[in-house]
Amino acid sequence: MEKGYRVTFECYDKQNPKAILSKVTVLEGGIEKPSNCLDFSIGLENQINLIKNVQDNVFVEKSKLLNAETETCPHCATKLAKFGSQSSQFCDVFTDHKIQIQRLKCRKCKYERPSSVKEVINSAMSGDLMRIQAKLGSNYSYRDSEEIFEQFSNGPRQINNHDRIKHVVESVGQSVERMDKEEKEIIAVAPAAELILNVDGGHIKTTEKDKKSMEAMISVVYRPESISSNSNGTRNHLTSKHCAASIKDDNQELIISGTIVAALKQGLTEKTNVTALCDGASNCWSVVEAIKPLCAHMTYILDWFHLAMKIQNISLPAELKEKLMRIKWHLWRGNVGNALIRLEQLLELSKDEKDINKIEKFYNYIENNKDKIVNYRERQKLGLVFTSNLAESTVESLINQRCKGQQHMRWSREGLNPLLQLRAAIQSNDWNNRWRTAILNAA
Q1: C-beta atoms surrounding 261 within 10 Å
Q2: What is the per-residue pLDDT across 332-364, written as a single tens digit (0 to 9) for each?
Q3: 24, 279, 418, 436: least CB-packed within 10 angstroms?
Q4: What's the sign of the alpha-carbon dihedral 76, 77, 78, 82?
Q5: Is 215 exposed, middle or buried (0-12, 13-18, 19+ CB in 10 A)?
Q6: pLDDT for 171-200, tens place per residue?
Q7: What is the pLDDT at residue 417?
C-alpha cells in the first residue's frame, strides 16, 4: 500500500462548527520510508508552501471583511458603489501574499475608499516580520541580516533586503524614542529603596566631516537585589535593568531624559538612594547630576574597573611601573592623599618626557575625581557595589558588538541613534511588553 498525506484548510461557522463554509487542500504528498535526514521531513520548501497556502486562504476570508459594508461618501453622502477589487502585497515572516480587497467608489464625486493592504491596516508587512527584522538588524549588519533571512526563507525576498531592514530598524528605533518621551508621566512601579546607576561612553567612527569619531552615551540602572550569580557563583549577571542610549549632539538632552525614564522604571522616587558609578568623564557625571534632584541621596563613585584599567594601561619602565602598581594599593583603600604624594614622587624619579606626560595625565585624573574615590576594599567587604563591570558588559553589547565589529564601519548620528534606541530597549527587561506598541507606532 502506498501512503500519502493531505493537509486541508477549513473555514467554518464558529457558532455551528459542523457547518463548513469552505474546504481547500493546501498541501499533499507521498509518505515513503526515509533513508537519511534530508528526506525524513517534508523539506523547507514544502514547509514554507504549507504556511503560504494556509495563510492565502486565511487572507481570502479576512479580506472579505474589509470594505464589506457599502457606506456613504464622506464628502457628498452618496452611497458608495462596488466596482472590482484591488490587488496589493502583504509580507509575513516566511511568505509573500497577494491580497484582494473590494473597491468602493462614489459615482457622484469620484471619492474612492482606500483598498490596499497598506492603506487599510497601515502596513504591508506583518508585525512579527517587523519585530524580527528590527531584532536582527540591531544585532547584525544589515547585509548579514539579509543573508540570515535568505537561509530561513529558502531564498531572497525583496522585503528582506538590507535597505528594508535598515528602514525598519530606524523607524522602530524612532518609535521607541517617542515612547520613552511619553512614558515619563505614566510609569507606576514599586518604589526602590536603592538604585545603582552606571553612565559610560564609547567612541565610534563617524562619517562627519573633519571628525574621526563621535561618542555614544550609555546608562544602565538597576536595583542591587537584581545582581545574581550563576550556578557555580563565578559570574554575576543582572536579572532586571533598564538602559538608555544616545549619540545625538543635543547637549545631552536625550541621554538625560532616557536615563530618567530608565530610573523611573526601576522604581526611582524622592526617597530612593542612588549610587552612581562613572569612569571620571565630566559628561558622564553631568548625567548623574541631572538625576540627583529626583532622589533622596546620591553617592558618587569613580568606577574601580576604569580606574584599575587606567593604571594597567599606562606603559612605563619596569621600575616605575612597579611603583605605580603600589600606588594602586593606596587607591584601593581610598587613600587619595597618599596616592597623590606617591605620584608626585614618581614624577620626580621620571626622566623621560613621555613617561612624565603619562604620569601627569593620571595625576590630573585622580585630582579631578578625588572626591569620588572611596574605600573600595571596604565596600567589597560589605558587599556594596564599587565597580561597573556588570554594566560594562551592557555597554559592550550596546555599542561595541554592533557598531565596532568591522574596522571600516562608519556611522552618522542620524543613522546610529535609532539603532542605539532599539538596542537599549531590547537590553531592558520590559521589551517583551513594549515591542507591539513600538511596531504599531513605527513610521
Answers
A1: 22
A2: 999 999 999 999 999 999 989 999 999 999 999
A3: 436
A4: positive
A5: middle
A6: 999 999 988 877 655 556 899 999 999 999
A7: 94
The answer to whether residues 101 and 117 touch, using CB atoms and an 8 Å cutoff, is yes
Cell of 189: 512601579
C-alpha cell at 317: 619602565
Q: How many other C-beta atoms are found inside a 10 Å radius of the C-beta of residue 138? A: 25
Q: Cell digits for 367? A: 585630582
CB 394 within 8 A of CB 241: yes
How many whole angstroms separate alpha carbon 173 and alpha carbon 418?
Answer: 4
One-letter amino acid for residue 274 of the chain: V
Calpha distance 201→388 (Å, rounded): 13
